[in-house]
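Let us begin with a simple case.
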Amino acid sequence: MISKLPDAQTSIFAVMTKMANECGAINLAQGFPDFDVAPKLIDRVHHYMQKGMNQYAPMPGVPALREAIAKKIDHTYDVSISPDEVTVTAGATQALFAAITAIVHTGDEVIFFDPAYDCYLPTIQLCGGVPVNINLDKNDFSI
């Protein structure tokens, strides 16, 4: 099988995990805790699983979580949004991939700043977009 992205490199997470393992360092890149899960958390997960809350969440996220996020945004930033405007993702990479693939079409020029999170370029390329890289100043990250 031929890759759609033959020039794609190893992700920063894989690079940092390898380095941490080689050096015996704490891996802060990927969130591997070196402590046990709190017993109270295990109890709460068990409690909710026994109530049948062990199925896939709706695509935009569990309504109660989206409501809590909307309230947090209102409280923190004084910006009122509807829970219907909130989408919960499994992480930054999924969110960025979904956003970029929703709006970038073949031939669209897409400006991104470098250094950049390593999923921007391959996602733009998968969509057929034309990446336009703008390097940030190395001293203060200004444009």
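The second case is a distinct protein. As before, the sequence precedes its structure tokens.
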Amino acid sequence: MSQQFYDPLLAALPASQPLANSYWASTQALPKLLPALNGCQQTDVAIIGGGYTGLLTAYYLATEYNIDCHVLEANQVGFGASARNAGFVLKGSGRLGYSAMAKRWDMTTAQGIYTEFTQAVNRVEGLINQHQIQCEPQDKGYLKVAHNPKALSSLKSAADFIQQNMAKDSDFTAEFINAEAFRNQYLNHHQAYGALRLNDGFGINPLKLLLGYKSMVEKLGITINEQSCVRDWIEENGKHRLVTDQGELLANKVIMAGNAYSPKQLNQRIDDKFLPILSNIIVTEPLTADELKAAGLHSHQVTMDTRILKYYFRLLPDNRLLFGGRGAVWGKDAAKPIYGQRLKLAMDKCFPHLSRKKVAYNWTGWIAASMDDMPHVYSNNGVGYSLGYCGAGVSFSAQAAFRLAQSIAGETLPNLPLYNSPLPTMPFTKARRIGQWGYYHYGWLKDKFG
């Protein structure tokens, strides 16, 4: 089964999947495959998944607690979401705004979550600097583009709420930019009614960041086995036996770090508790200086609009434009050209001068959403997971990994919904895709007429 048809809700295993034909893969050759798990081996903590979360959990277990761990990757490090995303390092995860968090829980809880998301961005930046990871970090700044006047008003309200209730003056700077100034100084976006610029957030090459994390883990002597998909998980007498094609790993504790690339049946703790959603990204051919000027692309800052079905984009270091949004509903449709074509049409409406510019790369990947729109980093009785980043895992995966390592080591985590409650079960699990299809149609109508 090729990657184009892989669907976590249908496929039994994520094994034997090719790498995505992404722009990132063209910028960085993957290193030689690491050996697969062979024979019977033992470890204190087994980690399933060699993406951001799995690698950094291993890193923190070793450096903070000197705990023996072992990483199992079903394919090759660089296969999953960690190497397919848009490379946006943002303060946030899930789909809830902070005022909604305060209403759902209370102000103290919302403030605590804000702090965790702030630390996540700082943690990624710190790892890049400490380990000199050459992942092409771009200019600081996160632009949120209002797609209608009501959205601009909502942006102002959200920023005021954060400034008044969440942030210290020194760590939150919100600058409102009217439509004319935004088009002249940042991006000549023909559907922009103004924008909010936040001082945090930046773009990176996600594959190079991932391989930087991999190098950090290897330097610590931690074993990473690639092409080692877990085909059976047997719990007996408080121990865990993870069975792969060529070997078995016996562990005292287990971390599930596959996020949306977790198969439909891995462990009852996460089965039927998340919705895999396809995201689609296109990248243009490089733009010339004249094309950049004509299109009005003056900024390399990461940008996202305020639609329910959001578009996100940024100018890459080699002056290609990356533009992303939702993909197909069903995995079997992921490779159909229509989804990339729709993104190109959306891009052309935003930047009409690029209508004749060719798309050089078009790929898709899975993200994971939880029922309550929040990521859950949870462990109990020696089994933990982090799941539900909802597309914002580049930054929060680092904080999640740190908290997972703390939890496995027996430390108490902050008393927040992110950490103190397991993933809620998705209702009507067999109808998840139908519900998603309906939500997409609702979102399209809301974005167009609301």
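The mean pLDDT is 93. The chain has twelve helices and 18 strands.
Keep these points in mind for the review questions at the end of the chapter.
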